[in-house]
């Protein structure tokens, strides 16, 4: 009984680690989704301002206004590039969390299997001791065909 209790403690610890890893994966997924949404929004702005820049060029706006819009588009492009790097980092962090969770999940399965095996071994040993006591009390001989 002692070994299975020790294994149960390990199972509880492994379950807690797996739960923490799962929570970390969920957080990384949410972060990636949020950053992807932000990137789509930046791309939408870029398309919108690109169209505005074309319209300004067709409409004959002043050079100063065109230069200001052009500078804003360059700044927006730089922001998009930096944010894309942030999206890539979030995707990598999510992949790391996924691998961590998979490892913790596998570890939990192993500990569950070991705990179950320990319980079965303890049950068999308990049954052998009980059968031995019954055999001794009944006076029956014990031999190879008996438990």
Q: Output the radius of gyration.
A: 33 Å
Structural class call reads: mainly alpha
Briefly, what CATH class?
Mainly Alpha
Q: Assign the CATH architecture.
A: Orthogonal Bundle
Helix content: over 70%
> What's the N-to-C terminus distance?
20 Å
- Total E-strand runs: 0
Q: List the uncertain runs.
A: none
CATH topology: Helix Hairpins
Treating each run of at least 4 consecutive H or I residues as one helix, how many helices?
2
Beta strand %? under 5%
Biggest pleated-sheet summary: none
How many domains?
1
User: What letter string, H or E per element, gives the SSE order?
Assistant: HH
Q: Any idea what the shape is?
A: rod-shaped
What is the arithmetic mean of pLDDT?
89
Description:
The protein has 147 residues and is mainly α. The protein has one domain: Helix Hairpins (Orthogonal Bundle). It contains two helices and no strands.
Notable characteristics:
147 residues; single chain; Helix Hairpins; mainly alpha
In short:
With 147 residues, this protein is an all-alpha fold. Helices cover 91% and strands 0% of the residues.
Write the layout of secondary structure elements.
Elements: H1 2-59, H2 63-138
Helix pairs in contact: 1-2
């Amino acid at each position: 009984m002692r070994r299975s209790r020790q294994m149960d403690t390990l199972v509880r610890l492994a379950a807690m680690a797996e739960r923490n890893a799962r929570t970390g994966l969920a957080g990384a997924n949410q972060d990636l989704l949020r950053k992807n949404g932000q990137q789509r929004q930046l791309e939408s702005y870029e398309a919108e301002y690109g169209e505005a820049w074309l319209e300004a060029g067709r409409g004959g706006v002043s050079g100063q206004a065109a230069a200001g819009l052009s500078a804003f588009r360059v700044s927006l492009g730089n922001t998009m590039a930096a944010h894309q790097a942030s999206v890539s980092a979030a995707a990598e962090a999510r992949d790391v969390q996924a691998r961590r969770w998979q490892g913790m999940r596998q570890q939990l399965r192993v500990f569950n299997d070991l705990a179950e095996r320990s319980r079965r071994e303890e049950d068999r040993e308990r049954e052998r001791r009980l059968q031995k006591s019954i055999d001794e009390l009944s006076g029956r001989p014990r031999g190879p065909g008996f438990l």
